[in-house]
Structure formats: structure tokens, C-alpha cells
Design brief:
This protein has 351 residues and is α/β, with parallel strands linked by helices. Helix content is 31%, strand content 13%. The termini are far apart.
Amino acid sequence: MPTPQAHGRGTSENPPNRFLPIAVVRDDWDDPSDPQPRTQFLVDATRSIISWNDSADLGFNASVNPYRGCEHGCVYCYARPNHEYLGFSAGLDFETKILVKQNAPELLRRALASRRWKPQVVMMSGVTDAYQPVERRLQITRQCLKVLAEFRNPVAIITKNHLVTRDTDLLAEMASYGAARVTLSVTTLDNRLHRSMEPRTSTPRRRLRAIEVLAAAGVPVGVNVAPVIPGLTDHEIPGILEAAADAGATTAAYIPLRLPNGVAGLFESWLERYFPERKDKVLNRVRETRGGRLNDPRLGFRMKGTGPFAAHLSQLFRVACARHGLSRTLDPLSANSFRRPTTGPQLPLFS
């Protein structure tokens, strides 16, 4: 029997941390007096803000994540297992224990000002969403964007939150010299499915509206149909691409669902709760695209999958992109305007 669902959460389960020998298991979720879990915001005293990778799958080397954990609560999120490295669970802990990098703007300024910094694209939200709900109050992402704009260092953003439109002024300024791009991730156009699967993200309509606002301001904006859930959302690919193109998107991408480590169990429980009649079909289709498993981490395969059904998704996506003018390739973001602003007091012209 599935764990009783906490309101507004992607999961109520907190599976054991795979790195810890001891786990605390709650058995009182059916107690009506038990309060719903509240989000805790913890200070992350990190000493560096730029994360580096050399993966050919990702298309970027440097990323900035102002938060660890994500209140959006997407049940399928591939980043959930990262919370286990912090001593938490990939389940409810991931969406209720959020580490906040309060000093991110200062650290970013220091990194860009260093002569060791080679101007290049910085990806915001490479792991967790930089525009999750608490950003409205803390504005750490906005302060980081101000630093990037001051240095004119190119930035790419991917998000599921309409809140990104708050920063249209900064993004439009950077886009004027080819240094900004935004992607809205749209998983489904079905509001009921959205509420259960991505409970604290912006609605599909609001994400499409964000595309409109950014495109109207001259910010290059694309759509990411991700994850595509075989047997549940794959039929929506043409509709999502059409809606995004109508809103002003000029590029598109997709990623089939992958379920690393503890995410698999969380997603299976979610299917059992909301789509029990489709559970076996969905999981079997995922296995078809992942070499018989629920996750295939191999480079070159994890972002597209393998097998006949993965080929079908690729063809469906390709045809829909061509139909709606989303097949174009944009110019790379430019670092040609990068500068290191003068810091400290300036000497007078005449002494």
C-alpha cells in the first residue's frame, strides 16, 4: 500500500540513504493529527560556486546552482540522488530540505574577476531549478545574473518556473550582445497530471506564457520536452511543440525518462498511486529505451535512449519540430563582450 500522500509534494516517501547504515522510518503518516512536512531552508557555506563537468552529453562545462534540493518536487527528478551525498534522502528530504547558497553572487563575482577565468557559457540550473519558489523571496539567482551581466559573461538558463520573467530586463540586456538564452521545460499540457507529478512548478500555461514574455523582449527561448515518459506523455510531444512554437520558441529538445538509483522506487510508487493501470506499461517502455533497465548512465545513450521505441520518439520529435519551425540551430552564445569591470575607488584625473 502506498504511503499516504503529503499535500503539494511529489512524494511522501523518504527511502534510506544508500550511503548510511542507519535509517529513520516513519510509520505514522496515517495519523490525521500529523502535520504536513514543511520546507526547511539551510545555509550552504560553500566556498566555490562554479561546478565543472567534462561530459559530452551536456553541452556545457560550467554551471551555477544557487540551491541544493528543489521545492518543485518533481517526482521523476534525476537530481534527487545528489541529496544523498549531503546525508539526506532522495525522497521527501530532497524537496523539503533546501540548501541555500547565500554567498553565491559574491563567489561568482570573485570567480569571474580572476585572471584564471576563461570567458565561457555558465549554465544556471544545471542540477536543480534556480527559479524554485524560494527564489521569489531570496533573489539569489537574480543577484547572480546581475554579476553575469556586469561582466557580460554568457549565460544559459533552463527552468520550469514563470518566475524567470522577473529577470527579463537583465536577460534582454545580455541577449542584445548574444550572451543569454532561456529554455522552458514543459513535460505535459495536462493540468491534472502536472499537479501530481510536478506539484510546485508553474502550470503548463504559465510556462508557455513565460516563453511569450521572453521572446517578445528579444531573448532567445526554446522548449525542452523533458522528461518524455513512455506510455504516459510521449503522445503529447507534437502538441507541446506546437504550443511552444506559437508562444515564440525557436528551438526544441527532448529527453526520455531515466530513473537513477532511488528515483526508480519513488516513481514506481507514484505510478501505483495515480496510474496503477498503466504502471507496468510505463515501466516496461522505460526498460525498452534503457537496455532492459530503468536507467542507462552510459555517455551517448542516457539523453536519448536506445531501441525501437527510442527511435520512434526521435522520429516523432523530428517530424513535429520540422512542422512547427523548431529545427533551426542557433548561433553559439558569445563571450566576445566579456569584460572585467574596474573595482575599487578610481584615482582622480588630476591630483
